[in-house]
Amino acid sequence: MRLVSWNVNGIRAVMRKGLLVPFLDTFDADVVCLQETKAGQADVTLDAPGYHQYWNEAEKKGYSGTLIFSRSEPLQVIPGLPATVVRRHRVNGDGFGDPNLEGRVLTAEFDSYFVVTVYTPNTKDDLGRLVLRYEQWDPAFLAYVKALEKRKPVLFCGDLNVAHTPDDLANPKPNMGKSGFTDEEREGFQRYIDAGFVDTFRMFHQGNGYYTWWSHFANSRARNVGWRIDYVLASQSLVSRITAAEIHPEIMGSDHCPVSLTADL
Fold first, then answer.
1. Residue 159 annotated in active site
2. Residue in 263, 117, 128 with CA at minimum distance from that of residue 204
3. 261 pLDDT tier (thresholds 50, 70, 90)
4. Dist. CA 112–CA 201, nearest whole Å
5. Which of 119, 144, 210, 211 is catalytic?
6. What is the CATH number of the domain that holds 36?
7. Strands 114-119 and 154-159, bridge-based pairing
8. Residue 25 is a catalytic residue
9. Annotated catalytic residue: which of 138, 159, 199, 230?
10. Residue environment code for 52-79, b if the CB has 16+ CB neighbours within 10 A, otherwise e
11. Domain residue limits at 77
């Protein structure tokens, strides 16, 4: 089984560049998860032979959104976080909007595992969304995937909008405390690890220089001055069956690149 995740930063832009179908053909994955689609299915004429398509779009047009392509038809597809989790963790939005209306989570249930794709809210340059992220979103999402895990193992992937450790960005010292590298965001990620989920890329690759997002400024991508903020995390029970986890910086079309996982599932 091969799973690929990519923040496309606008699926229509990737399609206009003629890059989406070649991307799908190149990976020939069983499940493909996209984030920041900035569109809904009605907005796009997308022919992806061999794939079922499942969309979760934001109410606000041209913003956020997630999409799953799957070779096999899932048992069920669940958009968003459950209302019980939302209430318990008071995920009720902030001055920037309600994340429950932004198409940020999409779950596909298969016979022996769940796949969840997530586009985690960005805390903003002024950290205006840090409270929502730290006190509401991260705890709620963790509670959700742990609840799923009681039924069967979970793979969750996407743009988590945080560099976990100093090895996960090119310039950690000047970015300490800034959006994507605050203590609170890093703690939120660490809680996934403490809860038993495994950062699959780090099973196979250690050290720095591995990034998934680059600023458009100062030729950052060509110089590989980036951040690793896109991940595939797995339930501990799946670890022995994971055979590879990779980052694919050669795939162009977005300011992010895809990440992938291969497993005997």
1. yes
2. 263
3. very high
4. 22
5. 119
6. 3.60.10.10
7. parallel
8. no
9. 159
10. eebbbbbeeeebbbbbbbbeeebeebbe
11. 2-263
Q: Full-prediction pTM beyond 0.70?
A: yes
Residues 6+ apart with CB under 8 A from 36: 7, 8, 9, 10, 64, 65, 119, 159
Work out the burial of residue 261: count CB atoms within 10 Å of its CB; fewer than 13 is exposed, 13-18 middle, 19 or more buried. buried
User: Per residue in 172-215, pLDDT tens?
Assistant: 999 999 999 999 999 999 999 999 999 999 999 999 999 999 99
How many independent structural domains does the chain possess? 1
100 vs 182: CA distance, rounded Å: 23
Nearest to 208 by CA among 165, 157, 148, 252: 165
Residue that is written with structure tokens 């699926």 in the block = 11
Position of tokens 């840090």? Answer: 130
- Please, what is the average pLDDT of the chain? 97
> What's at 185, amino acid-wise?
E
